[in-house]
């Protein structure tokens, strides 16, 4: 047997060396288990202990009786503890120390990279120097754990974790709850209301269940529900504007609408159309105005056309 970082092994306590700790052996090699790595009472010499092997801050092989959240070759969802702009993300692994997810594993776009508190699915492996690092878990690792989404999920709101995020969309593992690990999902870019980070927690609506058991998702409400909410939000926005008008209309570019209201241009036009049919707003060129305000102004005989001089 050899002592391999990232594995839990049954080792024999050979001796105590104060003020450091205990030396453990597999019969061929020894490794130090510091006093701070003990769990429970102090072991006796000759006792067998289950110890996890890792490299300490000085790159020396060490042992701990603490239980890690992940072992070599295993898969787990780990929380991001810290982010380093040149190294990558440091993940909590349950030992009071972190596991590095290298920068090379992260999305090229900074907007898509995890932040502290996000949680990513990773596999533990060795780097070229033999140190423990994390690698993002992709489809080949996750496929054996996910299940086919049930038809009862259709049009239901679900939650999950972003496992991969690209310009074309974001891939998600939808929570399985008591059913199991989870199901694959995809939020197309057109159905995102904002950029999604790798490891971000997201709530979305199941729009379609595919034959292979995967689901298409949307962060937006159904059109009929979304139209009401969008219309209310747009109306409130206009009412808060000085003069009761906004520089947005059917002529406004989609990117500007997305940036201001977080919805697509088609959703914006649907909501605006509802407000116009109800007689609440009207459009003039590239601007949209409250109809009520215009009627009040029109009913003031002392006001000259164009709102020029005195009352």
UniProtKB/TrEMBL annotation:
Top-level taxon: Bacteria
Single GO molecular function: nucleic acid binding
Pfam families: CvfB_1st (PF21191), CvfB_2nd (PF21543), S1_2 (PF13509), WHD_CvfB (PF17783)
S1 motif domain sequence ranges: 155-220
PROSITE patterns: S1 (PS50126)
Family annotation (Gene3D superfamilies): Nucleic acid-binding proteins, Winged helix-like DNA-binding domain superfamily/Winged helix DNA-binding domain
InterPro entries the record matches: CvfB_fam (IPR014464), CvfB_S1_2nd (IPR048588), CvfB_S1_3rd (IPR048587), CvfB_S1_st (IPR039566), CvfB_WH (IPR040764), NA-bd_OB-fold (IPR012340), S1_domain (IPR003029), WH-like_DNA-bd_sf (IPR036388)
Family as reported in the entry's similarity comment: Belongs to the CvfB family.
Name of the molecule in the record: RNA-binding protein
Species of provenance: Paenibacillus arenilitoris
């Amino acid at each position: 047997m050899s002592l391999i970082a990232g594995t839990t092994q049954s080792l024999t306590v050979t001796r105590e060396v104060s003020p450091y700790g205990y030396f453990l052996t597999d019969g061929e090699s020894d490794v130090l288990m510091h006093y701070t790595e003990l769990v429970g009472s102090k072991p006796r010499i000759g006792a067998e202990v289950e110890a996890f092997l890792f490299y300490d801050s000085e790159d020396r092989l060490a042992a701990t009786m603490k239980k890690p959240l992940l072992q070599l070759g295993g898969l787990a969802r780990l929380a991001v503890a810290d982010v380093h702009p040149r190294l990558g993300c440091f993940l909590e692994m349950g030992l009071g120390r972190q596991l590095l997810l290298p920068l090379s594993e992260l999305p090229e776009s900074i907007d898509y990279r995890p932040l502290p508190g996000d949680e990513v699915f990773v596999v533990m492996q060795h780097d070229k120097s033999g140190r423990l690092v994390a690698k993002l878990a992709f489809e080949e690792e996750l496929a054996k754990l996910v299940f086919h989404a049930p038809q009862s999920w259709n049009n239901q709101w679900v939650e999950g974790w972003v496992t991969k995020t690209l310009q074309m969309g974001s891939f998600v593992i939808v929570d399985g709850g008591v059913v199991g690990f989870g199901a694959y999902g995809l939020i197309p870019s057109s159905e995102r209301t904002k950029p999604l980070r790798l490891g971000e927690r997201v709530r979305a609506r199941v729009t379609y269940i595919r034959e292979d058991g995967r689901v298409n998702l949307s962060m937006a409400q159904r059109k009929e529900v979304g139209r009401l909410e969008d219309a209310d939000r747009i109306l409130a926005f206009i009412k808060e504007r000085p003069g009761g008008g906004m520089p947005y209309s059917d002529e406004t570019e989609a990117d500007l609408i997305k940036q201001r209201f977080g919805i697509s241009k088609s959703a914006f036009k649907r909501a605006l159309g509802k407000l116009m049919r109800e007689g609440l707003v009207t459009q003039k060129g590239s601007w949209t105005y409250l109809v009520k305000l215009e009627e009040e102004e029109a009913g003031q005989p002392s006001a000259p056309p164009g709102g020029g001089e005195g009352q």
